[in-house]
């Protein structure tokens, strides 16, 4: 919750920022409608909402329960000249309202006749080259057990990023012991890089268990995103870390690139603008696991939420970068062989969490003989684990000092 308060302060302190980032669009009732499929009016039917706008805008869609509601946040739409009750098809739902939510943001709330799921959400330009855009959402009724709400109205008020998949119950924080989420990459049907009989997923799980023991002995709480050779989706990995109320997220990989292209340990922090070719190759490899299961990664990061996530990262990103620096210092002191560019930015999906400082460590490359030997060397693994633990200790102390200074 700490980051949520910081995010709220940012949003309240910079109302003009939200105004500047998106030109005001107006709703067009003539190009808007709500329709239902079928003729059975005795139970919920599939719904299609079309909202005509004078121009495209970022938006976000989610559900709330008690009663079931569809919520769409826009940045920003002027609803002042349009009556929600005048929307064609308005009588198909119990209630519909829209208006300005806060500076820079507008909100549409549609009460639903039962639990629904979002099957399609797109925003297209108008046909024939006409100015404007249209947001179209398709909803289908689902059993209550399949209804995925964001939680409650308070979460909508605070704009908290909620888990998209159920993961685990949050472990109550009985003390202030720092909690680290370890994320051994790949697993299950996605073995990651393979060199002969060596599978990246198995190497990472083994290293994560050893690192977990080192961190636990050092006094930290540790949670792992997977504890066996099972598949865990990329977004669920962040969900697990958030549900555990982790203070730090460390993703572990040992990838493969053409021989001679990369060697040595490297540290990655979030940077969607990175133009490094090798980083793009690795991002494609890391993210392919969700594509294998049929999940569209682009759909999990809609344009809407990205705005709020960027604001949250104004606090979290510097903390991630600070940890990367401490980690580099400790690994260098331990004489761990490093990549020519030891700290890099990359658009790895597991680094997208806006509320938890996160890094991805490429322990080495299975395609490099020396790296491959190190990954199976008990002394190297122990030395690397000790360096990571030392970096966490130094970073947490520095982070606490900086947090204290920021509150003054």
UniProtKB/TrEMBL annotation:
Coiled coil: none annotated. Keywords: Hydrolase, Signal. Residues 1-18 form the signal peptide. It comes from the Bacteria. Residues 238-393 form the MurNAc-LAA domain. Pfam families: Amidase_3 (PF01520), AMIN (PF11741). InterPro entries: AMIN_dom (IPR021731), MurNAc-LAA_cat (IPR002508), N-acetylmuramoyl_amidase_3 (IPR050695). It catalyses: Hydrolyzes the link between N-acetylmuramoyl residues and L-amino acid residues in certain cell-wall glycopeptides. Gene3D superfamilies: 2.60.40.3500, Zn-dependent exopeptidases. Its EC number is 3.5.1.28. The keyword Repressor does not apply. PANTHER family: N-ACETYLMURAMOYL-L-ALANINE AMIDASE, N-ACETYLMURAMOYL-L-ALANINE AMIDASE AMIC. This is N-acetylmuramoyl-L-alanine amidase.
């Amino acid at each position: 919750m700490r980051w949520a308060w910081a995010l709220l302060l940012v949003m309240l302190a910079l109302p003009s920022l939200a105004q500047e980032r998106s030109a005001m669009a107006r709703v067009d009732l003539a190009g808007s409608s709500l329709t239902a499929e079928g003729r059975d009016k005795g139970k919920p039917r599939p719904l299609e909402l079309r909202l005509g706008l004078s121009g495209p805008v970022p938006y976000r869609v989610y559900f709330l329960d008690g009663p079931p509601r569809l919520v769409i946040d826009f940045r920003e739409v002027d609803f002042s000249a349009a009556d929600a009750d005048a929307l064609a098809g308005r009588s198909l739902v119990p209630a519909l309202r829209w208006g300005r939510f806060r500076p820079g943001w507008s909100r549409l709330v549609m009460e639903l006749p039962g639990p629904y799921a979002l099957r399609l959400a797109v925003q297209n330009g108008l046909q024939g080259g006409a100015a404007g855009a249209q947001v179209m959402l398709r909803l289908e009724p689902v059993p209550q057990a399949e209804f995925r709400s964001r939680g409650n109205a308070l979460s909508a008020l605070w704009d908290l990023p909620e888990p998209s998949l159920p993961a685990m119950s949050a472990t109550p924080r009985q003390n202030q012991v720092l909690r680290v989420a370890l994320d051994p990459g790949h697993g299950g049907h996605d073995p990651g890089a393979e060199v002969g009989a060596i599978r990246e997923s198995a190497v990472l799980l083994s290293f994560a268990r050893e690192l977990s023991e080192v961190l636990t002995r050092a006094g930290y709480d540790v949670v792992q995103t997977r504890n066996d050779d099972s598949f865990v989706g990329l977004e669920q990995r962040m969900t697990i870390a958030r549900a555990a109320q982790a203070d730090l997220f460390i993703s572990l990989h040992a990838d493969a690139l053409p021989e001679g292209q990369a060697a040595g340990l490297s540290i990655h922090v979030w940077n969607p603008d990175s133009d490094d070719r090798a980083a793009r190759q690795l991002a494609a490899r890391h993210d392919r696991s969700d594509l294998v299961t049929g999940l569209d990664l682009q759909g999990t990061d809609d344009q809407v939420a990205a705005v709020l996530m960027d604001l949250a990262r104004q606090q979290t990103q510097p903390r991630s970068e600070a940890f990367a620096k401490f980690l580099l210092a400790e690994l260098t002191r331990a004489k761990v062989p490093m990549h020519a560019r030891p700290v890099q930015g990359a658009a790895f999906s597991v680094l997208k969490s806006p509320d938890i400082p996160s890094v991805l460590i490429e322990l080495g490359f299975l395609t490099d003989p020396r790296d491959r030997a190190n990954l199976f060397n008990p002394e190297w693994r122990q030395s690397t684990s000790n360096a990571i633990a030392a970096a966490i200790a130094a970073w947490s102390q520095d982070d606490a000092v900086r947090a204290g200074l920021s509150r003054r």
